[in-house]
Amino acid sequence: MQFGIFTVGDVTTDPTTGRTPTEHERIKNTVAIALKAEEVGLDVFATGEHHNPPFVPSSPTTLLGHIAARTENLILSTSTTLITTNDPVKIAEDYATLQHLADGRVDLMMGRGNTGPVYPWFGQDIRQGIPLAIENYALLHKLWREDVVDWEGKFRTALQGFTSTPRPLDGVPPFVWHGSIRSPEIAEQAAYYGDGFFANHIFWPKQHTEKMVRLYRQRYAHYGHGTPEQAIVGLGGQVFLRKNSQDAVREFRPYFDNAPVYGHGPSLEEFSRETPLTVGSPQEVIERTLSFRDYVGDYQRQLFLVDHAGLPLKTVLEQLDILGEEVVPVLRKEFANLRPAGVPETAPLHPAVLASQEV
Q1: Which parts of 173-281 fold into alpha helices (H)?
Q2: Percent of the chain predicted with pLDDT > 90
Q3: Contact (CB, 8 A) for 273 and 314
Q4: Residue 263 has pLDDT above 80, yes or no
Q5: Which residues does 318 contact at the CB level (< 8 Å), separation at least 6?
Q6: Measured between alpha carbons, how far is residue 83 from residues 51, 122, 179, 243, 277 in Å?
Q7: pLDDT tens readout for residues 182-213
Q8: Which end of the chain, N or C, is surrounded by fewer C-beta atoms within 10 Å?
């Protein structure tokens, strides 16, 4: 099973100091966080894609390409690649290039984002969000698997005899997750292609996540890709850790209370009770994370959000030390012991797919 972190790349004022990092600092700090993730033995670093303040990751492949050059083992991914407002031809080219630079350590997560105005900025209509996601991914899927593509759709000009370059590394396209908070159509899309489904698992109660994952598993089996239990599932999550829970709650509360996304709403206690947010000791995070299996089944990837809401770099790096030393080793062991035979441990990423083709 793979464990890692994801970032949304927000530039947020630290409520305890009143200081706001510059965009330059935030970008450089994001690189430092990714390098720390590899240092402490995590598997995955994923970045979002946003094109508006207060976020900075508007060019995921640039960021990930730089990180690729400074790491050896870390899987580089996205927590959102905007399939609705990016040209699928450019996605095909950019991520294939990144795949070559990273020697295959690349996958990506398709999503529609959380910012409505991004649609007209890129010449699209938000009312067409789901149809755009479906059509654009159909083209992307084809571009990575066919050397010469003829294509005609509703949302972009037709292609005739087109070849995207470079071709995927070793002829193996990057593995794709389809990420969603609320849309069953995206779970259906993931199942249709036999791709992974990533449940955001941050803002909604567990009952909602359970329904979305169950739908994906059922439809994955319906399309003949395997049993429901063999479907490839990833979960998001939020944690803040200290040696004891009282210190964790006291330190994190001002960041939670002022966070752009959920600040000035439900209390930290209410949000922690109703969503997977876990603020506490390493043991509490371990127990809470293991409980996710009770309602989504055995899954393949767990990503944590640890660097949002104005948390200073020093604190984030401390969080990664705790995750790497005290939390993830226990989770690896426990999830492995619980996993039945025949259920994949990880997603089918480039090295494993290439090896299977060479047998």
Answers
A1: 184-193, 206-222, 245-258, 268-274
A2: 81
A3: no
A4: no
A5: none
A6: 14, 12, 11, 40, 27
A7: 788 999 999 999 999 999 888 778 999 999 99
A8: C
Tokens of 171: 């002829």
For residue 191, CA distances in Å to 84, 230, 231 come to 19, 11, 8
- Give the separation between CA 312 and CA 124, rounded to whole angstroms: 36
Instruction: Check: CB of residue 135 under 8 Å from CB of residue 86.
Output: no
Query: Both tokens of residue 94?
Result: 């950019």
DSSP 184-210: HHHHHHHHHHT-EEEE--SSS-HHHHH
- Residue 312, preceding bond cis, omega within 30 degrees? no
Q: How far apart are CA 109 and CA 232, in angstroms?
A: 13
Burial of 226 (0-12, 13-18, 19+ CB in 10 A): middle
pLDDT at 161: 97
Q: Give the largest CA-CA distance in the chain.
A: 62
> Which amino acid appears at position 115 of this protein?
T
Give me the phi and psi of 235, to 5 degrees please.
-130, 145
Q: Which helix (H) or strand (E) holds 48?
A: none
The structure tokens listed for 20 are 């706001």
Task: State yes or no: pLDDT of 222 exceeds 90.
Answer: yes
Q: Let me know: does 1 contact 345? Beta carbons within 8 Å.
A: yes
Helix (H, G, I), strand (E, B) or coil at 55: strand
3-state DSSP call for residue 182?
coil
Mean pLDDT of the chain: 94
Band of pLDDT at residue 84, cut at 50, 70 and 90: confident
Task: Show the tokens assigned to 200.
Answer: 């955001």
Q: Do residues 265 and 305 make contact, with C-beta atoms less than 8 angstroms apart?
A: no
Residues in a beta bridge with 236:
none
Exposed, middle or buried by CB within 10 Å (0-12, 13-18, 19+), for 227? exposed
DSSP H helical segments within the chain, as ranges?
23-39, 60-69, 88-101, 118-121, 129-143, 184-193, 206-222, 245-258, 268-274, 282-296, 313-322, 328-338, 350-358
User: pLDDT over 70 for what percent of the chain?
Assistant: 99
